[in-house]
Amino acid sequence: MRVLVTGGAGFVGRHIVDRLVAADHDVVVVDVLLPSAHADVPMDLPNGVEHRWADLADPEVASLAAAGVDAVCHQASMVGLGVDFADVRQYVHHNDLATATLLEALHRSGFVGRFVLASSMVVYGEGRYRCREHGLVHPGPRPTARLDAGHFEVPCPQCGGDLAWDLVDETAPVDPRNVYAATKLHQEHLAAAFEREHPGTSVIALRYHNVYGPGMPRDTPYAGVASIFRSAIERHEPPQVFEDGGQQRDFVHVHDVARANVLALTAPAEVRGPLNIASGEPHSLLDMATALAAGAGVTPSVVGGYRLGDVRHVVASPARSHQELGFEAAVSFEDGMRAFATAPLRG
Predict the structure, then answer these.
(1) Are 263 and 307 in contact (CB under 8 A)?
(2) Per-residue pLDDT tens over the stretch 55-69
């Protein structure tokens, strides 16, 4: 199978490329090599991998990339919360415009096959919550007055009491809370529109939860929290944990995420729709910082404060990805964090 991997030089994309090559697939990589994620031009792609270091939002680049492929694994994306809202145009360019340009090129080339999209749990906004009095509720953004007062839990929209988190499945309402999240949801919508108009094509959007592992970019405003904590430890500084450290997340190893993508690329045609890609093991941000810092001679520092656009708890149910793909995370939190504490980061 000839597979186009966009963003194939990136953190997740590169692991997917390695797995596809090991399985004897022909791989084409397109990556714009954003400076926020790449300090240098990659020189170590596997032998035989075609590559173009170019902007997928360029119609000519997208047309060349789409020609003759049997499947697409669309990983290219600008990630993270960024610096401030001034980043909005860049997010829309690299996430939404690039996706639209790629889909247009696939349309013009007559593509029929599997399209796997790297989506994200950020499309959910806050996770799933229960109130002791009102049952399942869908809260809005946390009031800044509560956050300023150091009250970080999510209040019930009906009674104001603290809510308890529950597992999020793919039927949960979507509610993106920042620019990055909005662009990821738009990517899902564009891909779904493409699928409806192209019989024989099937789309699987993989909603990654907190991915970590070797090859993450170093600490930048566009990096994930795992990279930020890991970079601090490499500098022999204590990881700084916002709020009270109790934010619950699902940390899933990049090796598992790459395997999920290959399963999605090769799944039967009837498998469609969004799928949570998660470990099924919830842990707090303080748990993660403590696990990474163990043995490094530093202790995480809970500094309070908050970032607008952050959510309190997002913990996934991976049941549907297990049912549809046979996916189950193989790397435990303890083993993964122990290895990640000394794994190389990308400059």
Answers:
(1) no
(2) 999 999 999 999 999
Catalytic status, residue 180: yes
For the four alpha carbons of 231, 234, 237 and 239, in that order, the dihedral sign comes to positive
Cα–Cα distances in Å, from 302 out to 142, 234, 318? Answer: 20, 18, 30
Q: How many CB atoms lie within 10 A of CB 215?
A: 15
Query: Nearest to residue 246, comparing CAs of 210, 279, 290, 212?
Result: 290
Report which secondary-structure segment, H or E, holds 337. helix 333-340
CA quadruple 130, 135, 136, 138: dihedral sign: negative
- Distance, CA of 55 to CA of 25 (rounded, Å): 24
From the candidates 91, 124, 180, 222, give the one annotated as an active-site residue. 180
Q: Residue 174 has what DSSP assignment?
A: P
Kindly report whether the global pTM for this prediction surpasses the value 0.90.
yes
| Helix 98-109 / helix 179-196 crossing angle, nearest 10 deg | 10
Beta-sheet strands, E only, within 132-182: 135-137, 164-166
CA 114 to chain centre: 19
d(CA 19, CA 340) in angstroms, rounded, equals: 20
1: burial class by Cβ within 10 Å (0-12, 13-18, 19+)? middle
pLDDT, residue 250, reads 96
Q: Which residue has the tokens 């303890």?
A: 334
Instruction: Return the closest-CA partner of residue 301 out of 242, 218, 234.
Output: 242
205-264 pLDDT, tens digit each: 999 999 999 998 887 666 778 889 999 998 899 999 999 999 999 999 999 999 999 999
Non-local (6+) Cβ contacts of 123 within 8 A are 174, 175, 176, 181, 184, 185, 188, 207
